[in-house]
Design goal:
globular, 277 residues, alpha+beta
């Protein structure tokens, strides 16, 4: 069990249907924090008496895999790197403990929040957009300014996630550990000494945010996709994440591990319960 998992045993569980009903938050404000793994128990110890942890079939920590898609010239990455208002992100997300999968497209909302639209997907198709291309095109149509884009798998992320429900604000927080990135060329990055804590709220910050602030942690600029890709390829523009890359990625327990390059992936041409996003 992960260090985060061991410190969650005292919290009251909440089931997935109840969590989804109370804090679905497909349109939301996300704040992300990078913590040393040793800080996670202190965070959990400071939670309120009414806070709960997602539990499914006795599990409180779940394995996630996301495959991100981009163009050959990385238009999604570059829009994020340049802080463009009309940016987007495309990924499949597989809940490895249940085998369920979703195709997801994230865009920016009219007031700065994140809007996510999802389509149930076959796990066997997680590495291609072909079955869901019409869904992707429909979501991106309002942003389209030119010909249809060609997308291919660009980055895979894997991690362990625990999800908290915060009833005081009807919001959620997630704790991700065992962070792993890999690109189609076989370059890998692993940060076993870090945790990413993300709060997913309405416009009001949660008490988890305030707890982190009191302990000296502030939201950081990090995107699992864009920051991970920039860490794997120093030639990419990364000014937006330079401080994060220097302070956190470079100072984890040892340097990022790499493997020899492999040929690039080809272009994209009863059900168990699933953890939330």
């Amino acid at each position: 069990m992960t260090p985060a998992g061991t410190t969650l045993t005292h919290l009251t569980p909440i089931g997935l249907p109840e969590l989804t009903e109370r804090a679905g938050l497909q349109t939301r404000f996300d704040r992300k924090y990078l913590l040393p793994l040793t800080e996670v128990p202190h965070l959990i110890a400071g939670l309120g008496r009414g806070d709960q942890v997602l539990e499914i079939d006795g599990r409180r920590t779940f394995r996630y895999e996301s495959i991100y898609f981009d163009t050959a010239d990385l238009v999604s990455f570059r829009l994020t790197a340049r802080r463009r208002r009309r940016r987007f992100k495309i990924r499949t997300r597989t809940y490895l403990d249940s085998g369920l999968c979703w195709l997801e497209v994230k865009t920016e909302g009219t007031r700065g929040g994140t809007v996510k639209e999802r389509l149930p997907y076959r796990a066997d198709d997680s590495g291609t957009l072909t079955p869901g291309r019409s869904f992707v095109d429909g979501v991106l149509e309002p942003l389209r300014t030119g010909p249809e884009l060609a997308f291919a798998p660009t980055l895979t992320t894997r991690y362990l996630r625990s999800t908290l429900y915060l009833p005081a604000t009807g919001s959620r927080a997630t704790i991700d550990v065992a962070l792993h990135w890999e690109d189609p060329r076989g370059r890998r990055l692993e940060l076993p000494g870090l945790a990413i804590v993300e709060t997913k709220t309405g416009s009001t910050a949660s008490h988890v945010d305030r707890l982190l602030w009191r302990r000296g942690h502030r939201p950081v600029a990090i995107s699992k996709y864009a920051t991970g890709l920039a860490a794997l390829d120093p030639a990419l523009p990364a000014a937006r994440w330079r401080r994060t890359l220097r302070r956190h990625f470079g100072c984890a327990d040892g340097p990022a591990t790499t493997t020899p390059a492999r040929p690039a992936l080809p272009g994209a041409g009863p059900t168990p319960a699933r953890p939330p996003t």
